[in-house]
Each structure stands twice: as structure tokens, then as C-alpha cells.
Amino acid sequence: MSGGQDGQTPLKIAFIHPDLGIGGAERLVVDAAMAAQSKGHQVIIYTSHHDRSHCFEETRDGTLSVQVIGDSLPRHIFGKFFIVCAILRQLALSLWLLQYHRDTYDVLFIDQLSACIPLLKWFSSSRVLFYCHFPDKLLAKRDSQLREIYRYVFDKLEELTTGLSDTIVVNSGFTGGMFKRSFPTILKKPRVLYPPINFDAYDRTTDYSDPQVQLLESHRKTLLSINRFERKKNVELALRAFAELKNSNMIPDSVFNNYRLVLAGGYDKRVQENVDYLNELDILATETFQLKTARIFPDTMTAPSTDAQVIFVCSFNDAQRTYLLANSELLLYTPTNEHFGITPVEGMYASIPVIATNTGGPLETIKDKETGLLLPPEPKLWADGIGGFISKEFDGPAMGRNGRSHVKAKFSLSNFANQLEDILEEMMSGGRPTRYYYMNVEFGCRIIIALVMIYIWYHYCL
């Protein structure tokens, strides 16, 4: 089973993703769909939400087929129960698929949420591939005993449903290790499939006539951070390190004034944490560090003040991304224990040296002192690192060239497509079935569980 390009029968593949916005998980799904499509497979993405003003271009311009099912259901209940609502939305999508496309697809590529796997596995003929970005149980907050009890149910559900997949794939060796420790009943070792980047999308020339690009132009040199506006991304590390350069007199004021910090990333006004965290960062910059700030949103029409040294770019588009990657001196990647992190790969391909924390996925993508620096997440150490590039202690252009070569060799879309093809071929041929300790539970018990889920859904939610 290779794809149609190799004279073999192409597959029909459906991707199921909760919210097709802008982020690392969404970028992976889009690239995986593009990779499968490049091999001759028929591809469609099903999602519970797709905002055409807040999505990747391939899902908007017709390159990939996208269908939205279940968006009328709530995303939360009074600001709580996000996981419950996410599962219900996914189950609604799954039931729709079972009703109208029960045996249409050869493969279902599912990521982020595994709750729908039993229904789709037991009541359709499709093989199920689950891509684990990171165990959800490790991302959930547990700040009270009640929440601990609440999460226990979903932790067990995650392990049970994930284990029913035909094949499990993870985005890094780090995630693979965490997966094994988090789900001890799943005996099979997941395969590692590193996220790629589509070089063609990053080789575009900057369109300086684009008004949205013109908003970003500045005479100052740019230090760039790209992350969603979420607290776990620790964006303030970049801000604190930038301010440390000034407050500790690590570089002369005349030099510092030639630089600006651009904090760019996914921002959704529907997500209260995005709104709150942006405000917190702005207050930290202005009131604590006495730095002038500016905000750029998708509907912003007026350029920021020329003396603004911290620029928040909320949900940039592809043209703005192209400009930022082409015109930045250094990329600051702030999360700790990030399971993979595609942003450093993007930066290295753009020939930008990267500073990242010496934890998680960046340990597998960045070569310390060759393509950037891996440092503990401490503002003073990061400020020292940034200062080293500014003072030419580190050869930024040389690291940038090394980074580009490294990414071209390891993280190309073609390499990803070939690895994904191998995984699909193995799965369709029946190789490496998922094993877990409860595999011998009678099938009737599984049917009962599925029927109970369907009954609850129809009785209480329709």
C-alpha cells in the first residue's frame, strides 16, 4: 500500500481535529494531510470549528477539503467543563460520520482527543491512527481535590480510548517517554514522527506592499518570540530577558534602543486565557519595565508608534510570518518541557539562531552552540545569551546557516511524507497492532460501553 503515485491503491483518509485554528497541533494536522495528499491519497479534514479568518491558508484556499460538524454545541459551560464539551463535540462529529460515512474511509487520523476512538473503531471498518502531541492528563490543572477527582475520570478515559487505536504515533522521543510513563497499560511503544515544515511556504518573498506587513516594519532590529498567548508558554521569559538587557546595563542604552521585541502568536478572543495573558504581559512591560508597547490584531489598520519596543502581534497571517522570519536577528522559544515545538524548526529554516529552554522537544531539534543556545529558563541567563549575539560573542549568521542545513536534512515535508507512508503501510498490512493489558476483555463489554455513551448523548444532549 504505498500511494497512488507508486501504482498502488490510494487510501481514503479522514483527519479528525477538534478546532482547526492556528497552533502547532493544527500545523501538524495540515502538514500531515498535505503529505498524505502528495502521496496520492484522498484526504478530508473534519473539525468542530474552523474560522476562515483564523486558520492556516491551506485550509482556506481549497488546497485541503475541510468540513465542520458540531460547532453549534458549546465550547464550555459558564467558563468551565472545557474537556466535557470538547468530548461531546467530538462525539457529535463521530456519530455524524458513522451515520453518513460509516465505511467510507480506510484510515481515520485522530489527534488531541481520543474519546471518539471506541465508537469509530468498533462501528466502522476504518483503521485508526492516533497522533499524540502530549498526554492530556499531564497538561490538565489539578489545583484542588475536587479537580483531582474530576480529572481522574478523564485520565482513565484517555488511556482506555487511546489504547484502542490501531497505531499510535508521537511527535518526539520526549513525548514517547512521557507517553510510556503516563499510560502503563498500553504496552506498545509508539512510533516517533517528527512534525515537518513545508519549505515552499517559507520560501516566499516578503510582500512589502501588503498593508498588514507594513504594520510590522521598523528601523529597529527584531528579537522574535512566536507562541500562543497562554501562560504555559512562558512568554514573559522573553520579555523579562529583554528588559534585563536594559535594567542591568548589559548593553549600552544606545544599543538597546536599536532593538525591539516582537511577541507574536495565536490569539483567540473567545479564549479568556488569551485575553488575560496578553493584558498581563502588557502590564508587565509597561508598568514593571517601563517599556512602551503596541498591539497588532488582524483588523489593525494603524501602524504602532515608532518608539514602541515591545510589539504584540496577535494571530499573524502568512505574509506577516514571512516578514518576521526574514527580518529577525534572533528567535526566543520560551516554553519549558514543550513536547516538540515547531517554532524553532521554522526559525532555523529561516536562518535565524534560536534560544530555547534546555528541556523537552528542543533538545531533539536544536544543536546547542551550533544552531542556537539551549539554556535554563532563567531571565538573567537568557539576557546573557541575547547579549552574546548582540555583542558578536556568538556568530549568529553562522548558526543561522547551520540551522537551515540541519532542518533541510531532518524536517522536510518529503521526509515526513515518506515516514507517514511507511506507518500507513504498516498499519494497513496489519503490522504492529496496538497491545494493552485489557485487550482480552470481552467484546460485549465494549459494545455495552459504546451503547451507554450513545444513549447518554442522545438522551441528554440532543
Q: Layout of SSEs?
A:
Layout: E1 12-17, H1 24-38, E2 42-47, E3 66-68, H2 82-100, E4 107-111, H3 117-122, E5 127-132, H4 145-162, E6 167-170, H5 173-182, E7 191-192, H6 199-202, H7 211-214, E8 221-226, H8 236-247, H9 253-256, E9 259-265, H10 272-288, E10 293-296, E11 310-314, H11 318-326, E12 328-333, H12 343-349, E13 354-357, H13 362-365, E14 372-375, H14 379-390, H15 396-410, H16 413-428, H17 443-461
Parallel strand pairs: 1-2, 1-4, 2-3, 4-5, 5-6, 6-7, 8-9, 8-12, 9-11, 10-11, 12-13, 13-14
Fill in the keyword field for this structure.
single chain; 462 residues; alpha/beta; Rossmann fold; 2 domains; 7-stranded parallel β-sheet; 15% strand
- CATH hierarchy: architecture of the largest domain: 3-Layer(aba) Sandwich
Which sheet architecture does the biggest sheet show? 7 strands, parallel
Give the tally of structural domains: 2
- Contiguous runs where pLDDT drops below 50 for at least 5 residues: 438-445
Helix content: 40-55%
CATH first level of the largest domain: which class? Alpha Beta
Number of helices: 17
What structural class should be given to the helix and strand makeup? Answer: alpha/beta
Q: Distance N terminus to C terminus? A: 40 Å
Supply the CATH superfamily name of the largest domain: Glycogen Phosphorylase B
Radius of gyration of CA atoms, rounded to a whole number: 23 Å
Strand composition percent: 5-15%
**Average pLDDT reading:** 91
> Can you count the beta strands?
14
Strand order of the largest sheet: 3-2-1-4-5-6-7
**Outline, from the CA principal axes?**
globular
CATH topology of the largest domain: Rossmann fold
